[in-house]
């Protein structure tokens, strides 16, 4: 009997008699790597033999699972049979022995891909045994390797060496045993650590190394999950014809112009005039070009800043690209599984599946996208930016993004830190062969120039022909009274009495809750159930999803007009595709205001321009900060400058063509100069700290935590929901699908910023902030989280946590 038929790479799945054979897994990862190579194509900055190194690293990556200790562990997966050794270290022995015909540099690169596919090479001093360097301290010589990794059946090891040589098309190897493998392991491990433990051998080697790590880890995850990478694009050559056939008239001039662009794009066009379609036409041209020049099948990343807008875009693309089930379109963001679950639960044609069964399928689909399955993915820029963290978790994102096409829909300029990081990443993506497309109605020239500097290439600018009028959709009114004043409530009441739909956008939660409380009864009395809705960031996930569904059901663009009131915060700016008759908003930086304007008379079909009223905010310092902020949220300087600019247009009609000129004026001011310096400083700082990849394989967990703090808050839970949360988790455990249980439980979570950690109790077992509130006291499915008292003092104030 062939001894390799008894060597497993994985433990058996529940109910199965045997695990996956090692040879089966090594064949599977080799196939996955070849598919990856065909998708990525030729990357100019990579060494000529990169893909050969990656293929051999995949073939050998788990050879170190042959010791009897590992086999006992996978056959009996319990703590009592834990092996305690790193199989990837022992795999190096097979690399060095079987591939002895290759030169040392080749074996070193192949070994590097092998030994870094699970653990960091260096760092992690606070976690004993976590890094390869710390493991090596217990392996000072070959004898220690024999003692640590043995016993190893010589007949089985020899059979594996012969099998590997055959697959690698290498000469037949000399016989192996524990001693031979120990010497080979020690020699190659020492060589790799001497070369890579401190710094990269040259300027580009660090990037090459993390891309190699990414190729191996991506292929390993795909092979282990048995989820093949797709090789057919959702965006095909039939798209232009499908688009033309779906329209009542010809394409817009800027859509045709975008399709002709070969290279990076800046598209400026009015809302409702086919920007998304123009960006897809441009992307198709880039995909064809890249396919012709570098081979491969370029990925298309369509990025948007907010989760709800991503979900809506996925639906829109599914319809436009004839993929309503999203089989070829991925959704990748932190709540993607929740999106798939909500989608399934709202499907009226669905079967009688239970919530946990829906959750299992939603987790599987989200995991498939996380494994880079689809060639077209809708995501946030911040998900892609995590590639800078590299390591075993994020280097896969880096290799997957090589030779890709990126569409950035509505970049936000005023957050200098995030923008600086994004610009640095754009530069890296272009170095890796990518094409950048930026789509906006109002992008300031200052940001366009920063993008060009970052990618070291020009943007081809496309816009509707000069002289063609842009839609006039709004009439501006300024009001010196605050949004929460009684005079504002009277004006909103008049609009409701006239049968209009009114959107009110406050800068903070406290103001939104106050306005809603004052106007709710009026709206309901005039227009019935669902005529008054409140939306802000401090609702449980499940409640927010239900509220967004109600809002879309009544006020979505293209729906029959219905009167009513929606009070919200900045969460509405680029999140939901809505169309109201009237807007009242607190003043904010111009970009935010322009997005709010875009939720009113969105399609430009009202008989007259819709009134948009901007109210003067309250300027005050935040707690512990001497600087003033508009309603304690936005920087005072750009908000005041925007107000002064709006004063020149008070009472006038507006079109979006004006907005770019307004923004150019703001960004040409002293505040704009300081903003530009801050963006460039953050971009340079991020490039030097993260994108040098030197050393490339240091432990990145602390960096990952710091990165998360920059972009994400923390999640909290009501004290009244702790028990049901635990029950949902248990339901997943009972079905041996913890991910599905976590997804069901996630409906009870509340998003909170990091500084909320000091405002309530941290539950270490759940890993969550527990806020002292229940649906009966402190929280409402209608109004969200209210002020909470603990120990006689307030621990949460709406408007304070934003």
From TrEMBL:
It comes from Nocardiopsis ansamitocini. The lineage of its organism: Bacteria, Bacillati, Actinomycetota, Actinomycetes, Streptosporangiales. Pfam families: Cas3-like_C_2 (PF22590), DEAD (PF00270). This is CRISPR-associated helicase/endonuclease Cas3. One of its GO terms (cellular component) is cytosol. Keywords: Antiviral defense, ATP-binding, Helicase, Hydrolase, Metal-binding, Nuclease, Nucleotide-binding. Residues 15-222 form the HD Cas3-type domain. In the central section; belongs to the CRISPR-associated helicase Cas3 family. In the N-terminal section; belongs to the CRISPR-associated nuclease Cas3-HD family. It comes from the Bacteria.
